[in-house]
Write a structure and sequence with these properties.
The structure holds two protein chains of two kinds.
Chain A lengths: L3 E4 L2 E4 L5 E7 L6 E7 L5 E8 L5 E2 L8 E7 L2 E6 L8 E8 L9 E2 L3 E5 L1
Chain B lengths: L2 E3 L4 E5 L4 E3 L2 E3 L6 E7 L6 E7 L6 E3 L2 E6 L4 E6 L8 E8 L1 H4 L3 E3 L3 E6 L1
Parallel strand pairs in B: 2-12
Antiparallel strand pairs in B: 1-4, 3-9, 5-6, 5-10, 7-8, 8-9, 10-11, 10-12
The chains are: A mainly beta, B mainly beta.
Chain lengths: 117, 116
Amino acid sequence: GAVVSQHPSRVICKSGTSVKIECRSLDFQATTMFWYRQFPKQSLMLMATSNEGSKATYEQGVEKDKFLINHASLTLSTLTVTSAHPEDSSFYICSALNPDRGWGPQHFGDGTRLSIL
Amino acid sequence: AQKVTQAQTEISVVEKEDVTLDCVYETRDTTYYLFWYKQPPSGELVFLIRRNSFDEQNEISGRYSWNFQKSTSSFNFTITASQVVDSAVYFCALSDLYNQGGKLIFGQGTELSVKP
């Protein structure tokens, strides 16, 4: 079964709305989670690294104030797209590292398809 | 800088044909991991394989096989006797846990279409 749960799977909302996406590790404590974005027909690009109890580390070119990341517990990271606009429409997917598995593969959520009208 | 290149954007084959998806990577790190993921039309990422930089043994899993060659910085993926259900986008990815915290650098992806 899934070890990382991402919710919601799809969001359609009006321009200017803020949207929160949740990423939960279900059977392990994830000190590190990652947020990726994928535009249609393109690859996955890392947006930020979410660390439990500390500030997220953003990749170059990603606006911190627009994409708020909160990793308040060992099993939950949230990505909030603030004042979303049509250009933010994309597929957002999170992943989590299981520290007990060392170099084990990252577990991915099923992704969130965000459409801003 | 780390980089993953999948030169084949799209591949189309007929069912039962063998197909190889190419992956070339760049890294200055000596310790790293390589991955292949499958992304069906529904969007989720399905983990296929992980290979560390110290293990150059080729691997076979059913109809899937992987050829890792450090000398050419390649990690190619072959599907034998392809099936329609293999149609998806396949991503090769590189990760360095110690220096980069485990984040994945993805290639551009190869869209495989298997026709009946």
